[in-house]
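Final report, Chapter 2: Outcomes

The project's central promise was a pipeline that accepts a single protein chain and returns its three-dimensional structure in a standardized token representation, suitable for archiving and comparison. That pipeline is now operational. To close this chapter, we reproduce one record exactly as it appears in the project archive, with the input sequence first and the structure output second.
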Amino acid sequence: MTKSDTAKIVEDHIRSIESQLFQGFCDRLLIKLYSDYTPVRAGGSHGDMKNDGYRYLGRVFFQAHASRGESASKIKTKIETDLKGCLDKQTDVQKFIYLTNDTLIGEIEKFIDDLRRKYGIDIETWEYKKLADKISDLDISDVEYIIDRRLVLIKYEQITVEEEKDYGIIEEIFDFIFKKLGTTYRGEISNNRLTEILEKIKLNFSSENQKVVRKLVSDLWEHKNLVETFVQEQSRIDENEVLALQIFITNRFLEIRGTSYIDESVRNYHIFEKIALTLIPNKHVKNSKYIINSTAIVLYFWELCNFGKRTKNQGEQTDLFNQID
């Protein structure tokens, strides 16, 4: 994954963070950036003393503020109030850094520049693009720690792998997909199919999760079509093997979701990842190529409604005993 790929994922994540979670996100970032960073929480009659966290060696103080959607006047008031309070209550403040999940307009940047001269203090603003740039310079494990999720949304132009056999049907599917990834194969995408998937996403996920799932489906679309092609060919050879995989994935959903009903909403996109990891041989669980393709397998069976809420067009789950009713 390139730095620009990582930065794009991180940018989208930052802009979607709810205000009450933004400070925790900033703490995780600053802990990775600076060994002397100390997070601060409000408590007692003095609150946080206008200090969300600081570097005790560099005497740098941070204020985290999820300002997206707020008016310019409210943001300016917040910044100056926090700055003045920090200078009044803290000792030897050398620098004040304001972190936000949005891009500050010119009016606010001009206001901050005036504050530099008014208070004689070095002030920096870290908006979401600057935050994403700093994060994408880090190791992938640190990026995942900061954004609190695994980076499975990865786009590859071409993947080359060595064939590995004798791992059963799951490994056979991976082998098949890996061989095909270097080709120009692209499955047909009809408007009806996209509309149906979009409806399934809305039925199965909260508004906070829907954007992530839409990107996941988009990024893995070609991989998922390769899975579909393999499943169709495999069904002509031995339908029981495909059925066994379907049952295995459905059972993992019931287990991870903690339910007895296969038509429960998926609710959290992390369930896709957790199911996918159960399909991978232990020695490959950290291999991004396997993660991508196993996630595509899970998405394929979810789209077929082997688990999760179904759209009206897909109807209710049926079985042999429905014939008796």
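Archive annotation: Residues 168-314 form one domain.
This record, like all others produced under the grant, will remain available to the consortium after the project formally closes.
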